[in-house]
Amino acid sequence: MATIEECREALDRLSDNLARAEGDVRGATALDRSLSCHITDLDRTFTGRLDGGRIRVEAVAPGPPPTKAEIRLAMSGDDLVALVAGELKFAKAWASGRVRLEAGFRDLLRLKSLL
What we know:
alpha+beta, 5 helices
C-alpha cells in the first residue's frame, strides 16, 4: 500500500508532467480550479489548485474532502502511484470505477484530452 509521502511525490510528479505537456494536454490543464484528491485507502485528502498547468497542493487532511472542490478525484494510493508512473491507464481505471473524477461539464470536456 502506498504511503502518504509516496502519494504526495506522485502528485508532484504529475504536476511536473502537466507543466511540460504540449498541445491538447497543455490546453486541458490551463485551468484555474480548486482541486481535491481523496486517497481512499489512506482516508486522506490532498487539496489545492490546478493553476497554470500545475497542481499546487495546499493541504492534506484526514477523511473525505472538507469542501467541494471544482475538480474532485478519488482513488487508492496505489492507483495514484501507478497512474503517474504510466502503469495504469486513466481511461481504464475510470471506466472500471477504480478512479472517480467529478467536475463541471465544461471542465470535463476540457479534461477529456487527458484520458
